[in-house]
Amino acid sequence: MATVKLNVKWGKESFSDIEVDLSQSPLVFKAQLFALTGVPVDRQKVLLKGTQLKDDDWGKAAPKDGMTVMLMGSAEAVPVDAPKNAPKFVEDLPEQEQEHLDTKRFGAGLENLGNTCYMNSTLQCMFAVQPLREALYKRGAAAGSDPTGKLVTATAELFRDLEGGGAPFPPYGFLMALRAKFPQFAQQGRDGEYAQQDAEECWTNVMFALKEKVKDTDGTPAVDKLFGIRTHLALKSEESPGEEFTEDGLAFTLKVNIEDKTAHVNEGVAVGLREERERTSTALGRTALFKGATVLTALPPYLTLQMMRFFFRRDNQQKAKILKKIPFSLEFDAYEFCSDALKKQLEGPRQAYKEAQDAAVEAKKLAKKGPGPQAEAPAAEAAAASGADVDMKDAVAGAGASTSAPATTKAMTGKYELVGVVTHKGRTADSGHYVAWVKQPSDGTWVCFDDEKLTVRSEEEVLQLSGGGDWHMAYLLLYRAIYADVPVAAEEPAAAAAGKEGAAAMEAEAPASAGAGGVVGP
Question: Keyword annotations for this protein (predicted)?
């Protein structure tokens, strides 16, 4: 057998033109890798064409000249104490790290491992949910060694790597855990390459794995608290008016159905919430058509909308795509889809939110007129209403006779701000390309995560992802709840208490915007 030259990718390091004698056992090659990286042979996982290399036989994984091999494993500790606080200079950093200094604060890119853009874009949007990361770090270590537990642990490890920022890296550990838990993501085509998959299916399956393993001390899954939408379905039959069917449920995604007349996301949600079912009528003694709709009875801190753009075509046995333009907004209002009881609970916080917004606008107008006694009090009140820091003299000027402000708590308004988008470019779900667009909580900057490439984008560019052509168009929309400060009540309704808990989970995130203060069931 001939000698070939291979390239080795190990984390963020690369080694080129390594001569390998294929007449020798793979163990000899692993010894070469140990000499290069310091990773002991027993810790090495060498991946060729997606297959793990054995010690004694090349098998079908015999590499070809110029092929890139992936090495996983940690090196032995070097018995030399390096300076703990040694200064680092940009010119001394590797070229790859210098290249990503400008985007390091946004995280890191994920290398495409062969049609894995669906996975990369999904993970980047999930990573944007900071309370989910915190729950993973606290509970992920005890997830267990079964396939679900390994996937949860791999997710936590990947998120920690993304927090480090810098150069892109291959998410091999997560990919292997995902395919072990959900074999459908290991589907291969006739040529042996891994097939493209649906980003929404990846999102849903990972969420269900986290739901099973990541739970709070009271046993409630973190996914339920962060993404769970409480729903109530009511159906009636026109043939039997006195007969009604009801059903309560928990969903994690709102469907945005796309019809010929659908002109906006809100219209698509309304269509998705309507439902028709054929059921046995007790009164009629036969099957009858029941019609009705689902209403939302409790809202989550994070709301996910799925554009129903794909449908199955029988003629070519593919998931075709609806290219129709469906505009969406940077702010989504769920109020019209809520039950009457939930609407009543939202009225107070919505009024408080409106007053805070009006006060902020008035403060800006007064600020343009210049400082003065008449401008200081309203400005202080507006700052206090929006949760901003207030200078002591301003607080005194706005306080009047009162010596202390009333106690307040965070309450849901039913309004949400857009913080993440997964887009798809292409004509079918089984092909094309997925990309993530994420709003940074620190300064409100929008960043496009196109596998390993990070690019800063504007809000205008994000709003252009509404469809209507072959450009990237929104497939999943991730919204974060907007809260308002309301007076503390003696007794809080259950839904209000849930909103307060969700606000507490999101306190670590600092939204940059001024307002930041159909159902898919489980």
Answer: Hydrolase, Protease, Thiol protease, Ubl conjugation pathway
Tokens read off for 397? 């000027």
In terms of Cα–Cα distance, which of 179, 174, 171 is closest to 108? 171
> Are 440 and 447 contacting, i.e. CB atoms less than 8 angstroms apart?
yes
Q: Measure the CA angle with vertex 256, ends 159 and 455; round to 5°.
A: 40
Instruction: With H, G, I as helix, E, B as strand and everything else as coil, classify residue 454.
Output: strand
Q: How far apart are CA 519 and CA 265, in angstroms?
A: 14
Q: Which two tokens stand for residue 226?
A: 């962060």
pLDDT of residue 402: 46
Q: What is the CATH number assigned to the segment(s) 94-214?
A: 3.90.70.10
Position 85 scores a pLDDT of: 57
- DSSP H/E element including 16: strand 13-21
d(CA 302, CA 210): 15
Most confident of 68-72, 115-119, 373-377: 115-119
The mean pLDDT of 396-404, rounded to a whole number, is 44
Alpha-carbon distances of 258 from 45, 313, 326, 421, rounded to whole Å: 46, 16, 8, 18
For residue 270, CA distances in Å to 8, 238, 336, 341, 446 come to 52, 21, 9, 19, 28
Nearest alpha carbon to residue 352 among 195, 499, 200: 499
Write the class of the CATH domain 229-234+247-259+294-356+408-488: alpha beta
Higher-pLDDT residue of 214, 60: 214
**One fold for 3-72 and 94-214:** no
> Does CATH place domain 3-72 in 3.40.50.150?
no
- Active centre residues (catalytic): 117, 433
Q: Show me where the domains of the chain are located.
A: 3-72, 94-214, 229-234+247-259+294-356+408-488
